[in-house]
Specification:
Length: 520
Amino acid sequence: MSYLMAIDAGTGSVRAVIFDTKGNQISVSQSEWTHSQEGGVPNSMSFDCENNWGLTCKCIRDSLALANLSGEDIIALSATSMREGIVLYDKDGNELFAVANVDARADKEVRYLKENFPDMEAEFYESSGQTFALGALPRILWLKNNKPDLYEKVAAISMIGDWILFRLSGILATDPSNGGTTGIFSLKERNWDASMAKKVGIKDDIFPPCLEVGTLMGTVSEKASKETGLSKNTKVVMGGGDVQLGSAGLGVVNLGDVAVLGGSFWQQVVNIPSDLTPPKDMSVRVNPHVVAGQSQAEGITFFSGLIMRWFRDAFCEMEMLEAEQRNMDVYAVLEEKALKVPAGSYGIIPIFSDAMNYGKWYHAAPSFINLSLDPLICNRASMFRSLQENAAIVSSINLEKIKRFSGIEIDTIVFAGGASKGALWSQILSDVTGCKVKIPKVTEATALGAAMAAGVGACIYKDMISASKELVVWDKIYEPNELNKKIYDEQKQKFELAYKAQLALVYEGVTTSMWKAPGI
């Protein structure tokens, strides 16, 4: 029997996941990695290529051992990674400089570009769907300004998933879904736009070939075979960005399909045509999808999952003890109690992530407002439910922004990630948006999407759409409660007014922003 391998290079860890050709997960090996701050470089997040390659090789070897398979059993592999993270190489393919996704060292360069070329960001955004904040242009400009000797040696750029495939095959290339997040890119052409680099004064001849997801690149090299235990016959196939491949792993592959990915951060994605111009207000992000001819309009809600973890750890010691005694997940205990709280959570308004404003992105100080001194009304259960409702409300605002510029009507949402395990949270998302919410039966959507790409390259599946239709299975469906939706529509209006007032306090120096994009 033949198997497919997906290598998933996330922000916090790398994983090698083996699937059979029916989409069943056979084994997984995971190693955590950390991205250290470079000495004397504030807000930096360096990516250690040598150490992290060792961890990647170990995961590959361990996943084979756990599945009791040899390298010959893996017919094809692909990789996915955190987006925005980049690797720069010299002319011999040696890594010179690498950073993880939220490296924010280039705040001065972002500010320089905004102040000296006031129309450039909007011009580039119209073509690429990206702003400067986490793009590659300011980071490469930082290298030119701060390490000119290293900059002069730069001959090529790739994303981190591409770097893994390069290490495995010796072939350097990128794909639209991940490469597009550099911002040096054309959504319509699904290829690099080197003129952007030239306009900001950095090298414009460092861009490798751009291949569609699922393109066969080559096979595992002899050197990589010895390092990983993979066969030299194993096919190496172009992968893509984690959110976009994760969407494919959730069945979100057709124009107009919608997903909410509820993890540490929440993403709201809508599939749109590649030739659709991003909105002039730069309110949302637009990325190339892993399906040719499609892009994804994307909203992001900051820290939704992390805020829940903070709330649990800071306030819910009793529920944690109860969960241990009942052999339950603590979030299931909290949802059980929150079910008794009426929709609207007695008017409690959490102030954490704002709706997305990609062109000028910052947040108010974290807080709860409109609390009550009545402990029967204001307690852990009602505050917990208010956080669930707020994540759904911010998601709905982002989806409404996408609907306005795309014209796409949204009636069904695929909900995935850790948050989708909560029955109450899934129902709240349906009630807030007024949409049917579908929960897929998959635990590793991003890795499954990468395995689909590998299967396309090995001619097991015709294309990404066919692979998705064959492998994605649905678990649960939630229908909206129209009475609750009316309550949430009012709550949404109050949230937007309250958040605007809280942002004003940051402007006035009274409170401190939870997060600001570089250059703001």
